[in-house]
What does this fold into?
Amino acid sequence: MSEIPDRLAALADGYFYHSIDLPGLPTIDGAWDLRPNVDAYLGGVDLKGKRVLEVGAANGFLSFHMEGRGADVVPFDLSPDRLGDIMTFPGLDRESFEGRYREVVEGLNRAWWHARHAFGSALTLRHATAYEIPADLPPVDVTTFGSILLHLRDPYSALAAAARVTRERIIVTELLMPPFRTTTRLDGFVRRLPSHSATLARSHGMAFNPTRNHDPSAWWSFSPGAIEDLLSAVGFGRAKTTYHRQLFRPEFAPWGPTALRTYSGPTGSEHL
It folds into this structure.
């Protein structure tokens, strides 16, 4: 009778940012529930038989989903000793935020290993920032950046690091945020945006958002054109952009957008 509560209690030191179904347990809810629309999140790409570099593994939902679809996944994420980029702005208690950030990253790492154990997976989580993907990493077919670029001071360098080891495709999924989304109606996306917003959404700009949601780890809002230009600059010039919706539960977020867009930049037309 107490087996499930005991197993859930054993997971309590982990932070599950993405909702996940672990074998034999009820759903563990996270801030983002990608389960109903995960294929769209990954650009509709068939990953079976592909070697996939995952930049930003979080609590492992995508790692083990892709593994379950037949991919050989190479997951990377931060560690408490290797945090991501944090900006400084007036009013920020940086020391306090870094402490909270470190706790969140440690919780994500623990959750990833809990999920690995539950799935009986042989994957290994490696630790590095997005800029530190080893140049001597054995080549991968596909690299994924799942809502990672907005957290990077220098998204170009991170994409360039991944591009050096990627043979076929880079999949980038990013939030569609102001000023490139300025309406709360998400149905139909761009075609329902006011004309000035539609123009912004078709632009090639990226906006610096130093105090958006008071999150000093979120640097940028991207237009589709900006992501496509970044991919082109690192050698992935034929990009396809798709739009989709995902479920966001702010009560599970580590700190204070529900529309996502995915950019898939292949190296050649045969991969479109």
Q: What stands out?
A: The chain has seven helices and eleven strands. The chain has one domain: 3-271. The chain has a mean pLDDT of 86.
